[in-house]
Protein 1
Amino acid sequence: MAQLLDGKAYADQMLEEVRIAVEARKKDGLAPPCLAVVLVGEDPASQVYVKGKVAACAKTGIRSVERRPPSDISQSDLNLLIESLNSDPGVDGILVQLPLPKHLDSKAALHRISPAKDVDGFHPLNQGHLFEGLPGLRPCTPSACMRMLKSYGVDMKGQRALVLGRSEIVGKPMALMLLEEHATVTIAHSRTVDLPGVCREADILVAAIGKPGLVEGSWIKPGAVVVDVGINRVMDVPLGERIFVAEPGKLEKLREKGSVLCGDVRFGEAMQVAGAVTPVPGGVGPLTIAGLMMNTLEACENRGA
Ligand code: GUN
């Protein structure tokens, strides 16, 4: 049976670290860090994510301000909103929750955020720093995953690491961070030939492709470390019957409640083959939020505010 990589417990440790640092700032008479969260429109999933981020701010003593423009905001008004947060000396970090409504250009908006306040690490300047191996604000999910792997003593040097997914939020930055730790890195994606065979070579497998239960137990090298970044809501019972064969409890819950959350990896099957696995929920999700709190603190301290 694989070891469970408890993302939730490690995220709580990270939050406690941030809380102590914020407390120390306050004792020194300094203002707490401040995160501005921009949520455009009413997307229900985004509302849930933003609620989690604001709650984590409250838990760590970070101040949060929310800006909730309507879904029909124009690009130029969104740009003005971002500019006003850029020039607000009381704001240390700016997060524009994605996805944005279709008429808006996400990249154009993200590129407007001041690199010093870019707590998502999506600005090309920060991406460039990561590319060059320099310090800077880095994307929250991969940086928090790397911290957790290190805390569990996972030695990445010389190991074969496979990143499944090539997004700018997770896949690409994760590959660079694994490379920085001297892993031998492959990026695979939906068009990769023989995905199962490529996965089977991996000592460290990071799944971030957004396909529920794609990675089967038979795709996993015995003893591998599996990090499941996918957070997928499954409502389709026939799909659940296929991917939850080794997780009868999950299938039962799907039948009972009409939906369940699951990762890109078949967790029950992975637990029988892998050396260590992150669960979904309770794995990478909480880590992402903890990474955001770390970045907000870092942005604040770097600004010398
Ligand atoms: N939507 C899904 N993941 C993310 C993220 O990491 N940052 C932002 N801003 N939006 C997201």
Protein 2
Amino acid sequence: MIVETKLLTMENITDAGEIIRRGGLVAFPTETVYGLGASAYDDDAARKIYAAKGRPSDNPLIVHVASKEEISAAARDISQDAKRLIDAFMPGPLTLILHKKSVISDGVTAGLDTVAVRCPSHGTARALIRAAGVPIAAPSANISGKPSPTTARDVMEDMNGRIDAVIDGGCCEVGVESTIVDTTRGGCVLLRPGGITFEMLRTVAPDIRKDKNILLPLAADEKPVSPGMKYRHYAPDAEVTVIEGGREAVQRKIKELISRNQNGKCGVLLMYDAVYDDAVMINGGSTNAEYARNLFAALREFDRLGVQTVFAEFDENDGCGLAVRNRLYKAAAYKVIRV
Ligand code: AMP
Ligand code: MG
């Protein structure tokens, strides 16, 4: 049993690699969010990740490699579309679903014959993979269902005493998890939007489609393409409602909702100006890229401040809008008011 989680920095990267190689768990920074890493070749280590997060065992992990050349260590029969996406966007915040090689542990892929692979651009993440000498399986380093962590402090709040170490690398630049594209079912399908936008993907794979569940909850009897789609996600303790539209209408609606609120302290996640009395205000950002960077940190901060009701201002005004909307809708359990 782990009693104390060590806080490490880039200077301890050799030690961190050693922990992974010996079957331990290390959380590390990437350009998207903090990951919770273990050797992708080790079934027991994969099991420890599920236990530390309280993650359902049918929700597979992403395998991280240090260079695009190493993708072939994890995957086979890579399609032409997938090769073009790799050349265009890796290293970076893109994950591809590929056909799995048998060296990758079944625990990592939850028994699927496909594997999710990503080559992060973050220097510390790549240094850790190199130091470990094995591909690193890693989901986000949060308790399952909570907002993903974007600082080492967030990771510690969820994981202290559950994992061996956290490498502190400051804040994450993108702020939401990687874009996921499935390339194994003929053509390309966007399963999860992220920092590599649909428009960017389309320049390389013009026929790419969006999975219909990106902005909609699954029906009760529906089987998801990606197991992660069926679980509650990104949710703070506070109850979140998204108010979507232009500045004036959104502000008018939120003022009305605050005046009628009966559910504890109110908070507003701002895309526009700070105009609310009687509410804790946190700035999301005026562009969707900024909003993506601040979103999870803001949801966690509302919880720390004891806010019970959050109103999130939102308007999709640039390419990262789909990624923000997908996370916000899930955080709000699809409670959305369009004005
Ligand atoms: P996380 O790293 O916490 O964002 O979780 C990884 C995401 O990748 C989850 O939503 C998984 O369902 C998804 N994923 C991982 N492997 C596969 C796969 N082989 N096929 C489809 N989705 C996958
Ligand atoms: Mg996650």
